[in-house]
Design a protein that fits this description.
With 379 residues, this protein is α/β, with parallel strands linked by helices. 43% of the residues lie in helices and 15% in strands. It has helices at residues 37-49, 61-64, 66-74, 95-109, 124-132, 136-145, 160-169, 188-196, 218-221, 229-239, 253-263, 271-286, 307-318, 323-335, 354-358, 365-377, and strands at 3-5, 12-14, 16-19, 25-27, 33-35, 54-56, 82-87, 114-122, 149-156, 175-179, 200-204, 245-248. The strands form three sheets. It has an eight-stranded parallel beta barrel with strand order 3-6-7-8-9-10-11-12, surrounded by six helices. Helix 1 packs parallel to helix 11 and helix 13 (307-318) crosses helix 16 (365-377). The structure holds iron/sulfur cluster (SF4) (2 copies). One iron/sulfur cluster binds next to helix 15 and helix 16. One iron/sulfur cluster is lined by residues 292-298, 307-308, 311, 358-359, 361, 363, 365.
Length: 379
């Protein structure tokens, strides 16, 4: 296992971290979910024996049972590992509410301190309204001084500009957990910025939330035909020198072994290879007939057609060879799901032309929609 300096926290973190959101579970006769403790413990201990020293959980993971399972599994080696968990700010209405959430997590984890306590899934709005508005950063510092939190962290879901804003205004924040992978490199520059400012950087979704896990033509397209896409994706994330640790939501002992092997490589990717992989991804996109950057200037469409989403699905298929993923994303968009109502398509277009006037890539959006939708439908 390779270890990296974790910002200014004084800790050398393993290049591979364990994301404890997909621990093995089962349902009892009443329909209640439980973590299979024996299997979970085996996996977490296997990871520890492979050198993993950072375990990330959260109150709602695994039907709200992850913290309990992680606490039980890691109890015998508590002082040898770092446990990270998160504060759901949606439930924090007052300054005192922050400590209440922390106490709930501590009780479930069966420990009296959390190593890295995250403001969970924040953007600029949560930072301004909750963290600054309710004085939660000061509260976190007080609890750090009291020994209940070892380090103050945040996980992040917003634009790169918002990330810079939080880093610049969040004095006392010590590490960030953010999304970054070969398909979504929006945070790349900010990873460098965060590292320069002394923050530890943990990456979630290093293999694109499973999107890059299936074998595809992508590795061949990027000129790395001897690697499977999954390994290429993990190496790419670890090839970024600003990244301290890649979190993987491992589900089997086999995955632990494979990931640990990649995280043990002294040089997961040389700087030249890393630049080449990134540039190849961009070129694949640029030289395709449909170069949509996902900027969303074409939105909102008066009929609710989510043009960037449709074009993204097509890019997955046409550019990266991720056929199954492209088809699935498009079907989910059209049919809708619990988070998203059924999506509008070119059949709903009223030809107002708004989108095409706004598109910086000058795409003939209406024609392209008509062209790509039947292809996506057929996947
Ligand atoms: S032209 Fe069609 S797709 Fe474009 S904004 Fe108008 S309704 Fe939406
Ligand atoms: S404005 Fe153009 S480039 Fe930007 S998301 Fe819309 S279609 Fe894509």
């Amino acid at each position: 296992m390779q270890y990296r300096k974790f910002g200014n926290t004084g800790f050398d973190i393993s290049a591979l971290g364990f994301g404890c959101m997909r621990l093995p579970e089962y349902q009892d006769a009443e329909g209640n979910w439980h973590v299979d403790q024996e299997k979970a413990t085996d996996m977490l201990m296997k990871a520890y024996e492979s050198g993993v020293n950072y375990f990330d959980t959260a109150p709602y993971y695994c039907h709200a049972n992850s913290e309990i399972a992680v606490g039980k599994a890691l109890a015998p080696i508590r002082d040898k590992v770092k446990i990270s968990t998160k504060c759901p700010l949606g439930e924090v209405k007052t300054k005192e509410g922050y400590e209440e959430m922390l106490d709930k997590s501590l009780a479930k984890l069966g420990t009296d301190y959390v190593d890295y306590y995250h403001f969970w899934g924040i953007g600029k709005e949560e930072f301004d309204e909750k963290i600054v508005g309710l004085g939660l950063l000061e509260e976190a510092k007080r609890l750090k001084a009291a020994g209940k939190i070892r380090h103050i962290s945040f996980s992040f879901h917003d634009t790169p500009d918002a990330l810079k804003y939080i880093i610049d205004n969040g004095e006392g924040l010590e590490s960030v957990l953010l999304q970054y992978n070969l398909l979504d490199r929006a945070n790349e520059d900010m990873i460098v910025y965060a590292a320069e400012k002394g923050l530890g950087v943990v990456v979630m979704g290093p293999v694109g939330g499973g999107r890059l896990a299936a074998p595809t033509e992508l590795a061949q397209k990027l000129g790395n035909g001897n690697l499977n896409t999954y390994e290429l994706a993990l190496r790419f994330v670890l090839g970024n020198p600003g990244v301290s640790c890649a979190l993987s939501g491992m589900q089997t002992a086999d995955m632990v072994e494979k990931n640990a092997a990649v995280a043990s490589l002294e040089v997961p990717m040389t700087e030249a290879q890393w630049r080449e992989a990134g540039e190849s991804m961009e070129n694949l996109k640029k030289f395709s007939e449909l170069y949509c950057t996902g900027c969303a200037y074409c939105q909102p469409c008066p009929k609710g057609i989510e043009i960037p989403k449709i074009f993204e699905a097509y890019t997955y298929y046409n550019v990266y060879g991720l056929k199954e993923l492209a088809g699935k994303n498009y079907q989910n968009y059209v049919k809708g799901n619990e988070e998203h109502k059924p999506g509008a398509t070119s059949a709903d277009c009223i030809n107002c032309g708004y989108c095409e006037r706004k598109c910086p890539q000058h795409l003939k959006i209406r024609d392209l929609l008509k062209k790509v939708e039947p292809v996506l439908q057929s996947l």
